[in-house]
Backbone:
């Protein structure tokens, strides 16, 4: 027993099985360290395609892959299914919902979560799009709104059911708006013949003066034009000040009657850093040294969305490439520490950004060059398909994309499972058709 408890190799614990966590583990594979990946889920989610699950284009299983299957042939990499609640900095122990996990070196790659900015009603009455469960819940709700509208006799309630508000004009908001428009004006038109689809409204709200502000202005202008051609109402300079079960209230404007508000307006770092008394900014991200280490804790590295990495007088964005590159550097620096050499600073190499708006429509920025239209769309397809983990996932996504493209058909438009998440968000089929004088449940 004593022999089992002795660790000859340093133990590197990686919290989070996202892009950062996986690439850090890959770099440490077959190195003189024991690696343990810890995550509350036993699968990796390809977040770039999460919005397609919410738009009934892909199944949840198509963009998820078991973590253990990724590293099954690497003897020094293991996985633990656990929810890390707190870091005991002094004793170098992770407190989880189960056993305690000790570490010699720690890589925090827990990612980000939706930021409500403390706006009243956002947490209670909006739909998020950061996890598989949230994507499935949102897809269920969209389908249930049409089911309810098909039976609704009150005109005001029907219009409310058929009004979909998306808050946030970044990549996620734009991509979901485009995918939702293609779902609504494609397969659902055939499914719901009793509904007048001229009354369906998809409204995209952005608080700033342009969409996808992190991309060149030419792409922003192109995105705005394409969304308008897809019958999406885009409102710039529109700030949401309150969300209720049946309205979205804007600053200085009238309320929008709606049963669906999708919140993609912002993200913040996962709370583990704050709960563990690590230094954090207002957005919950940890300001790190150029080497990605936490000040005062050279054994702890923070990468990806949780890290506030300053470079050239700016904080690097919360994108996959930052997570991957910072994770690789963190893993290399841990190996240098073990070899008793100085860690090296992290330098980010911007490989460009891209966004898809809909069929044959995308925007790509690489260096000083921008591409829009069909070529950009093909480039987006190839890069995302290549970056998916697992041959099966690539094949299933490719088949679903081809099926949708050739036949204008989305086979995933069913409500299953019927209940995910909190009751107000999971009972949309009931909630969508609820009469004002219905007695409360319970």
Residues:
């Amino acid at each position: 027993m004593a022999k089992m408890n002795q660790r000859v190799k340093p133990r590197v614990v990686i919290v989070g099985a996202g892009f950062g966590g996986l690439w850090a583990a890959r770099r440490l594979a077959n190195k003189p360290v024991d690696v343990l990946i810890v995550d509350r889920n036993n699968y990796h989610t390809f977040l770039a395609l999460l919005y397609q699950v919410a738009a009934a284009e892909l199944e949840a299983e198509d963009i998820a892959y078991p973590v253990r299957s990724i590293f099954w042939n690497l003897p020094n990499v293991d996985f633990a299914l656990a929810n890390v609640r707190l870091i005991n900095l002094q004793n170098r122990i992770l407190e989880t919902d189960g056993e305690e996990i000790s570490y010699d070196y720690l890589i925090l790659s827990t990612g980000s979560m939706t930021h409500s900015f403390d706006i009243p009603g956002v947490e209670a009455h909006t739909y998020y799009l950061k996890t598989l469960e949230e994507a499935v819940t949102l897809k269920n709700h969209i389908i249930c709104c049409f089911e309810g509208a098909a039976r609704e006799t009150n005109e005001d309630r029907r219009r409310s059911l058929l009004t979909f508000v998306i808050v946030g004009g970044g990549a996620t908001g734009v991509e979901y708006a485009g995918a939702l428009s293609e779902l609504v004006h494609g397969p659902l038109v055939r499914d719901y013949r009793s509904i007048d689809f001229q009354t369906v409204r998809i409204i995209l709200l952005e608080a700033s003066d342009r969409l996808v502000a992190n991309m060149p202005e030419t792409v922003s202008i192109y995105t705005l034009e394409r969304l308008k051609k897809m019958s999406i109402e885009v409102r710039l300079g529109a700030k949401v000040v309150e969300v209720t079960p049946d309205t979205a209230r804007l600053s200085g404007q009238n309320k929008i009657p709606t049963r669906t508000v999708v919140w993609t307006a912002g993200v913040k770092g996962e709370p583990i850093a704050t709960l563990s008394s690590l230094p954090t900014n207002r957005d919950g991200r940890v300001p790190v040294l150029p080497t990605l280490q936490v000040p005062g804790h050279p054994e702890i590295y923070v990468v990806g969305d949780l890290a506030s990495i300053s470079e050239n007088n700016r904080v690097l964005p919360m994108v996959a490439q930052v997570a991957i590159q910072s994770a690789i550097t963190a893993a290399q620096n841990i190996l240098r520490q073990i070899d008793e050499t100085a860690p090296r600073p992290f330098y980010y190499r911007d490989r460009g950004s891209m966004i898809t708006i809909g069929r044959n429509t995308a925007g790509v920025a690489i260096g000083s060059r921008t591409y829009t239209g069909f070529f950009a769309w093909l480039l987006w397809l190839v890069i995302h398909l290549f970056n998916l983990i697992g041959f099966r996932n690539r094949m299933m996504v490719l088949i679903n994309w081809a099926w949708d493209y050739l036949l204008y058909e989305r086979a995933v438009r069913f409500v299953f499972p019927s209940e995910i998440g909190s009751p107000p968000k999971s009972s949309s089929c009931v909630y969508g058709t609820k009469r004002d004088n219905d007695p409360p449940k319970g």
Notes: The first strand starts at residue 11 and ends at 15.
